[in-house]
Amino acid sequence: MSRADLPEVIVIGAGGVGVIAALSLSLAGESRVSLVVRSDYEQVREHGYEINSCDYGQLRNWRPHRFFKGVEEASESGKFFEYVVVTTKNIPDGPEGSTVPDVIRPIVESNRRLCPERQTNILLIQNGIDIEKDIYAKFDCANEKIVVLSGTQLIGSTKIGKGVIRQIGQDHILVGPFDVQNKAAVDAAQKFIDLYRCEDRNLVLFDDKVRYTRWRKLIYNSVISTTTALVGMDVSRCLKFGVAGMGTEEEIFKPGMREIFAIAASEGIELDEECISFFCDISRKQEYKPSMCIDCENGQLMELEVLLGNPLKIARENGVETPVLSLLYNMLYMVQNKLKEQKGYIKFELDDE
Amino acid sequence: MSRADLPEVIVIGAGGVGVIAALSLSLAGESRVSLVVRSDYEQVREHGYEINSCDYGQLRNWRPHRFFKGVEEASESGKFFEYVVVTTKNIPDGPEGSTVPDVIRPIVESNRRLCPERQTNILLIQNGIDIEKDIYAKFDCANEKIVVLSGTQLIGSTKIGKGVIRQIGQDHILVGPFDVQNKAAVDAAQKFIDLYRCEDRNLVLFDDKVRYTRWRKLIYNSVISTTTALVGMDVSRCLKFGVAGMGTEEEIFKPGMREIFAIAASEGIELDEECISFFCDISRKQEYKPSMCIDCENGQLMELEVLLGNPLKIARENGVETPVLSLLYNMLYMVQNKLKEQKGYIKFELDDE
């Protein structure tokens, strides 16, 4: 295949996950990679990225094939993007125009104008459950030939400065169709894996049970990430600073995790009991702050709905009791509104007498 | 009675409550009032207090009869203090030497040296339940002629600057014996009321059901104060910012309050159902932050044990279920330890592999 014939991939979201995804795709050499960069645009257009990666080594002035300042610019590029890889935070309750469907719409529409007969594959490398539903609701996927794929990253990659990325855990990603019955989605996921794989350097696997994978990751994110955000400290402090050195684990983490197990079970997904101690232990010995905690500390909105709101909707529909998760949600919902007020997205007014 | 014969009262803790207590006692004119001032000592010894009080008007350069820099200085004054009024925060898990028994000990001991046959009355104007137990445990009250009294303040008084006090709610205090069977305590409470009452200006009532009064106040403090501390915002925002504008009230405040009702009931105290809506409404229309919230924001230790830890001990002893309060406690316990680490009272170390 000549270079001009390589499929075009656009990565939206230039944080730790997005930049490493763009890098992997570029190094694999099977696609042309565009990266949408917002806040660091001037910096990286001028100097590229500085990347310190356990998989890909030390890179300076690294650039994907193209940078775009925003999705509108990308949609005017005349390119058909076969894969739209979304690595932004997923905050459906964010400010107007910031939801995933809003963000991808210009590209979906320009793709359609350019080649109405070709399929557009949306790959959501994001946490949470039911995140595909918002795409299904806002686009006529069957008629518009849109396929939605799940990406679950198990990567320790962080943007530590303007245009500077540090990746400390192997680039390990599971890619699969949200709807395993959808042959086009299965094929698209498999093709993406071929575009992404860099022999011996990253680990890219086909995910034939996306929902299970997402529930499994929620064992950590719905319970531990949320707790750290609420109390404002890293996981190891949460554990050590609990009542009698064990209250956090025994009274919050484990009961909260069991609620996730029960919700998943209510839709027929059985999680492995061993996950409980695995996830309790995974960051016990590091001063690790999950991104929800960091977002909250930095005054940024949290991924509260996809990590906790959506699981609780399912729990309510299926009659599952969730005392720990509900209380966490009620508390963090207040905090999310405080962050929204600080950002100027909402206004607080006292009720009149 | 000549002035020299007036009983000596010492107020320990020169915050909003302590200074107004010292002022009321002084104005009533039936006692000689000493005030222990720590942080503002130089300021108030030089300039006295500036007080803006809804009961007592505008005062400048106001001084009680005596200032002391600490309890040790007071204990060396040669005075027998008939009443030791404690208005400090009650933080039994604070740094060494900071508990109420530690703080009052020098005065109790100097009293005993001066007049072993006279009774020392300890009046705790502090929130929480079972706060007297710590005094009973650390002193041989019967032999040392120590009586412990309860003071419950319903006052809106705050120290708003060095030596500056603003009081916006009427000075309304309930004083009574923790042990209503103890005749000496009943008499001491009644005598204190006479020392404190300023006709038409304050409201001082005998409290013949101290435990009820304290449980009633905990309906607010165990639930609303704790929640505001955890999420870091005033009560009206907590209410408005809840899920669907009512999650805070319906899912946290009311269920938490019902747990306090159940714990109180388990020791035979029946709280009035109407308190629930009363306390939910009391600060709905003000941007009011309870002191626990302010302490947490200011990096000060919270009165967590007396407001929440002690009620939960009783719940456990009596087999009362407390899902909401326990989770609040587990969360705030972590936060309290974070504050202790910040203050340098404890050290955090990662476990070795």
Describe the structure.
2 copies of one chain form a homodimer. Chain A has 353 residues and is α/β, with parallel strands linked by helices. Chain A has 2 domains: 3-208, Rossmann fold (3-Layer(aba) Sandwich); 212-343, Orthogonal Bundle (N-(1-d-carboxylethyl)-l-norvaline Dehydrogenase, domain 2). The first copy, chain A, has helices spanning 16-28, 41-47, 71-75, 100-114, 131-138, 183-196, 210-231, 235-240, 247-266, 274-282, 291-297, 304-317, 323-343; strands spanning 8-12, 32-36, 49-53, 57-62, 66-68, 83-86, 120-125, 146-153, 157-161, 164-167, 172-177, 203-206. Chain A is globular. Chain A binds chain B through residues 227, 230-233, 236-238, 240-243, 247-248, 251-252, 284-287, 323-324, 326-327, 329-331, 333-335, 337-338, 341, 348, 350-351, 353, and chain B through 227, 230-233, 236-238, 240-243, 247-248, 251-252, 284-287, 323-324, 326-327, 329-331, 333-335, 337-338, 341, 348, 350-351, 353. Chains A, B: The chain crosses the membrane at residues 6-28. Chains A, B: Pfam families: ApbA, ApbA_C. Chains A, B: Residues 210-334 form the Ketopantoate reductase C-terminal domain.
What is the radius of gyration of chain A? 20 Å
Biggest contact: A-B, 37 and 37 residues
**Overall average residue pLDDT of chain A:** 95
Instruction: List the total number of helices of chain A.
Output: 13
Following the backbone from N to C, one meets helices and strands of chain A in this order, namely EHEHEEEHEHEHEEEEHEHHHHHHH
Measured as a percent range, the helix fraction of chain A is 40-55%
CATH fold category name of the largest domain in chain A = Rossmann fold
**Assembly form of the protein:** homodimer
Which structural class do you get from the secondary structure elements of chain A? Answer: alpha/beta
Distance between the termini of chain A: 73 Å
Domain Ketopantoate reductase N-terminal (chains A, B): 9-179
Pfam families (chains A, B): ApbA, ApbA_C
Keywords (chains A, B): Membrane, Transmembrane, Transmembrane helix
Domain Ketopantoate reductase C-terminal (chains A, B): 210-334
